[in-house]
Structure formats: structure tokens, C-alpha cells
Amino acid sequence: xxxxxLFRNDIxxxxxxxxxxxxxxxxxxxxxxxxxxxxxxxxxxxxLQQYAQARISSFQAFLVDIRVSFLQWPLFASWPPPLFxxxxxxxxxxxxxxxxxxxxxxxxxxxxxxxxxxxxxxxTVNNEPRMGASILRLFFHxxxxxxxxxxxxxxxxxxxxxxxxxxxxxxxxxxxxxVIDTIKTQVExxxxxxxxxxxxxxxxxxxxxxxxxGQSWTVPLGRRDARTANxxxxxxxxxxxxxxxxxxxxxxxxxxxxxxxxxTVLSGSHSIGQAQCTTFRNRIYHDANIDATFAAxxxxxxxxxxxxSSLAPLDIQxxxxxxxxxxxxxxxxxxxxxSDQELFNNGSQDALVRSYSQNNGxxxx
Length: 365
Ligand code: HEM
Fold this sequence. Notes:
The protein is mainly alpha-helical. It has helices at 3-11, 30-38, 42-54, 59-76, 83-90, 113-127, 130-143, 177-190, 197-211, 231-237, 245-253, 259-267, 277-286, 292-301, 325-331, 338-341, 350-358, 360-364; strands at 274-276, 311-313. The structure holds protoporphyrin IX containing FE. Residues 100-365 form the Plant heme peroxidase family profile domain.
């Protein structure tokens, strides 16, 4: 059954624990803290622990703590902060939430959840490695609009629900809905009416990165699925490939994410996956800050008209491997998206890009 249909059925059931119109995310999990601690992130450990003890109900307050932790990071642990931690933080995006998430949320109610998700994702990524990238992007596009509440998965329902799937950034671009459908079907067969699609998407994105040779991380669980979607928010809040640095910084700041610690790190997710010609045509024909040979090679395959949906790998070396080539290629100006090159264009993010380019461990571990 299609995920959207499941959601629509759920709308009538207000007792369903998976449904929460606020779509909240937050955490107090000691397990997450322990996980970070074991990896050596002592400063974050302390701050997360403080957060857990105080049970801060406002997610904005939590982000203040996290920003402090990033400021202190170099004093206590490796710098810069690794991508997996940023993805972990991305998974916490929500606004004004009170929900308490935990990695063990389904330990008794759906003990096979992680195994089911990993199994389907392994098959999927084996068959088509790019799908791992598409699932990660789907997760980002879900979290960036009204929090990680699976609203991106909802289909239109007449005029009463206009979904996010047809927003500019998603239309004929967002992929992987059928993968989440498959996982959801198998999860329902194992533990009916228990697991939210938002949690399934969060787990699937984690597994996608891991299966493409990136790091793994602990996923806090217990998200509630949205009962509605917000297409206009998706139109205005999802970043576009022609955006400049200050616009991108503002868009991430609007989510409580700093440029230095979050946007540049998260954009490293472009280490995997592909882009359609429409998203980079302007750059290969008009941008000055692009390697001439690289641009000429791309122009040979992507003419000024036609072939709008033709694909090119974002990372010209290892499109199916999660690594720091993204940052190295930005420095070499061998990159497709204008928005990415903005991160290394004599601006505030140059130093961080250089740092990650020199140290894959800092980025991925
Ligand atoms: C900084 C602002 C960002 C912009 C402007 C942006 C824009 C884009 C664009 C235009 C594409 C190509 C889509 C297509 O051609 O259909 C793309 C692909 C992708 N994006 Fe982003 N993105 C941004 C941030 C992120 C973040 C934060 C993540 C993950 C956390 C992410 C993950 C991905 C992935 C994995 C792909 C490849 C998807 C696939 O192959 O199906 N992006 N992005």
C-alpha cells in the first residue's frame, strides 16, 4: 500500500500514537549521549547530558546548546565536527516540540524494525546505489519543511491536502518514495500500526549513508507523522541550486542551523548522488568560477537546450561513495552546482571547506 494512502487512513484515527500534528522531534536519550561519548565527543556528551537532565522542552533552546557545543568543540575533541553528527542533528529538527525520542522507542513493540529497514535498504542500494543518495535527500527535504514528520511523503488529496511532492525542489526530482512504501509494508506486516513513516525515513537515511561507505549513527525514534503537508513552505524553504551564499546561510539559520557547523557540513552529502541538467546548466555555461576543462566536458554532453533531465554525477570521482571528495572538488572548482561552489568562493566557508578537504576522517568519522 502506498504510504500516502496509509496516512490518509490514519487521519481519521486520532488515537493513533503515530499521529501528531506538531510533527515534533527532540531527544533526551542517554543512549545517544553514550554513543557520542564512546566516539570521543566529550564536549557534546556533556552538553547533551545537561540537555537530557533539564528536559528542555523547546527545540530552539536545544539548538542554542548545540551551537555552544560547536563553539567549544575544538577545545575538547576533533575539529571540524563530522558529518554524521550533523546528520544526527538534522534528524532532530522540529519546532517547539515536547516529544521525547529514544533509540529504544520500539524495543518491545517492534524489535525487528532496524533489521527490516537495513534489509530493504541493503537490497535497494545493491540494486541501485544512487537510491541511497535519493533517500538521504528525501530525509533532508522532509526535515527542512515542518520538521522530520514524513510530510514529504503525503500525496495530494483533492483540494483538502496539497502535498510537498510537487513543490519545485521535489517535483520530478525527489525520489525513493516507493522504497519507503516497501519498508513500511514490511514493517506493518511485522508490527501493525506501530512505527511512524517519519522514523522509517530517518532509519533508511542513516542506513543509506552507511551502505555507501559512510559512518553510521544512532537514530532517536518516536517521531509522529504529520497529518498534513505544506507545499508553500516547501517552495519557500528548500534551497535551490542557483542560490548565493548569503541566501543559503539565511535559509539554514531559519532552521537554527549555523553556516559553519551545519550548512557546509551537511552540503557534503552531495558527495553522493546525481543532478539533472536543469540544475547545473547555468553554471557550466555562465559561471566564471568553474574549472575550464570540467565545464567544457560537461557542456559537450549537456547542450544549451533539451535533455533537461539528463543526469550527471555530483562527485566526478566517487558518486556512490560517501567521502570528502566533495570538498576537494570545490577547491578545484570541479563542481556542478552553483550553490555548492558558493561555499568555496572567497567567502566565510572557505576555511572549513579546506579543512574537510584535507581530512576525510574529520568529515566521515
Ligand atoms: C545547501 C543547500 C542545498 C541545495 C541548494 C541543494 C540542491 C540540490 C540539487 C539541485 C540536487 C539535484 C536534484 C536533481 O537534479 O533532481 C541535489 C541533490 C542531492 N542533494 Fe542537495 N541541496 C542542498 C543541501 C543538501 C543537504 C543538506 C543534503 C543532505 C543532508 C542534500 C542531499 C542531496 C543528495 C544526496 C542529492 C543526490 C540525490 C539523488 O541522486 O537522487 N542536499 N541537491
